[in-house]
Amino acid sequence: MECSCTLSVSRLGSRTNRDALPFCHRVLTATKLKSPEYPKELKTLGDHIRKRRLDLGLFQRQVAEQIGVTESTILNWESNATRPPVRYIRCIIRFLGYEPFPEPISVSEKLVLERRLLGLTQKAMAKRLGVDPTTLARWERGKGWQRKKSIAAIEAFLTLSASVKSKS
């Protein structure tokens, strides 16, 4: 592309009567390159947090204030040095605006997801289900939930959880 800009020159080699800059009537456009910090794939919760933060143009300090943690905590999550504890999952989902977890397939995956979405530890979730924490741990690993009594407790909890979600 050639520019058809002209310079006004009165005398050869003179700097007077010259435009400060040539005036071009062309506009160049290009897409802005994404920051090298931008995650290429969203594999972890930290990747989702970093993507959302960069999309919104926020500093880690601002995200930390929204979630209720320190700036160094956000740094650790985004760099995948640590994973967010379950008690912050609800705040993180609120910040993201979506649930970053894959759709559960098995009963054990559904249990783990519901526990995370509720922000509960295994001990707290086991108490809600009325079972021992080691029993819940086995269920989450896909073992021992096949008994009729276990299935009834799990289904009752998942049904209750689904009805609570639909109301909110």
Largest sheet: none
Question: What structural class is derived from the secondary structure elements?
Answer: mainly alpha
How many strands appear in the DSSP assignment?
0
Which range best describes the helical content: under 10%, 10-25%, 25-40%, 40-55%, 55-70% or over 70%? Answer: 40-55%
Q: How large is the share of residues in beta strands?
A: under 5%
> What's the N-to-C terminus distance?
58 Å
What integer is the average pLDDT? 81
Number of helices: 8
Shape: elongated
Overall radius of gyration: 28 Å
Order of SSEs: HHHHHHHH
Low-confidence stretches: 3-9
Write the layout of secondary structure elements.
Blueprint: H1 45-56, H2 60-67, H3 71-78, H4 89-96, H5 107-118, H6 122-129, H7 133-140, H8 148-167
In short:
With 168 residues, the chain is mainly alpha-helical.
